[in-house]
Amino acid sequence: MAIHTPPPAAAPGLTGPVSSLGTHCTGRQQPATSAPRPYLHPIRSLGGATVTEAAPADHPHHLGLSIAFSDVNGTNFWGGSTFTAASGPVLLANHGTQVPQGWKSTADGEADGGTGSESGAVSWRSHSGGELAVEQRHLEYFAHPEPGTWSLSLSSVIRPAAGVEQLEVSSSAVKGRAGAGYGGIFWRFPQGSADPLVLSDAGSGADAAHGSRSPWLAVSLRIDGAPVSVVLAQDPERPLPWFIRAEGYLGAGPAVAWSEPARAGHNTPLRLGLHAVIHDGAVQTPARALELLQQHPRLSRPGQTDRTS
To answer: How far is C-alpha 147 from the geometric centre of its chain's CA atoms?
Structure first.
């Protein structure tokens, strides 16, 4: 069970055998205004339902499951417009690029009973082309004991590049756009055939989850007439507010700079983590969401959530 870049889109360090569960893309084919970056898409359930969206017409810079920030030291790594206090959203020539380097993958077993992982570096290049940040990123994927279910984990450690003293991560909300604290690990969902059901520890609905520090977030959809769910959880030692939007499009992720900038230094890196359970079926109660999460290997093994250094 491996998530990888297929040969036609492969870059050095991002290669591997084809998998039916997901594809790890380099992002090199994306336009500059989308802030090209590695991303996972499509991610599929064991039943074949696609639970990510990439480059949709409403937001072409939304790329499956990726790590993106609207402002790191003045460079836009999110894509699209930049929010300015004076003029609101403005399309500027300030987009950065994330370049994967030295990626390796391992696999152990098949999709119905095995595990696998990918890890490597990501070089964050500013809009002027210089290296702004260096990242170690780790992906893990696991079989899950529930039928029609598998698990995924993404962890990341981001530091300033050599010659860069500090990283300052901002957001549109920090700059004055209410509720727009997005930025970090972000999951863009597809359009389902019915309204999504969103659950969290803060209650039912996207409004309850938005801005909360709920340990988990469940999104249930109907794709091609069948129910499918993604249950997300953060690393328990560093929960962040959730950004989630369910009107116009469906997307969610922990927000690094929800209301104030986040800063990272060489000895104080930015650490990110997100864990997912992809389940063929509806998740209609908090108890069911927690039942699925508690069988995720990275959440059932205390002290083993951070796999980067």
So the answer is: 24
pLDDT reported for residue 252: 98
Of 283, 201, 209, the closest CA to residue 244 belongs to 209
Question: How many Å apart are CA 133 and CA 210, to the nearest integer?
Answer: 29
Domain regions of the chain by residue span: 7-270
Write out the DSSP string of 69-92.
-SEETTBBSS-S-EEETTTEEE--
- The Cα–Cα gap between 130 and 47 comes to 43
Do 36 and 28 touch, CB atoms closer than 8 A?
A: yes
Alpha helices in 132-270 (DSSP H): 206-209
The dihedral over CA atoms of 28, 273, 132, 161, expressed in degrees to the nearest 10, equals: -120
What does the alpha-carbon distance between residue 179 and residue 83 come to, in Å, rounded to a whole number?
13
Count the neighbouring beta carbons within 10 Å of the beta carbon of residue 110.
9
**Structure tokens that stand for 22 in this block:** 């997901």
Give yes or no for residue 230 having a pLDDT over 60: yes
> What tokens appear for 51 in the block?
């639970």
Residue 66's pLDDT band, with cuts at 50, 70 and 90, is: very high
Enumerate long-range contacts of 214-218, CB under 8 Å, 24 or more apart. 214/239, 214/242, 215/239, 216/289, 216/290, 216/293, 217/242, 217/244, 217/252, 218/283, 218/286, 218/289
Q: Are the CB atoms for 199 and 213 separated by under 8 Å?
A: no
Residue listed under structure tokens 């959809």: 221
Which range (4-13, 139-148, 275-284) has the least confidence?
4-13
Task: Quickly count: other Cβ atoms within 10 Å of residue 237's Cβ.
Answer: 10
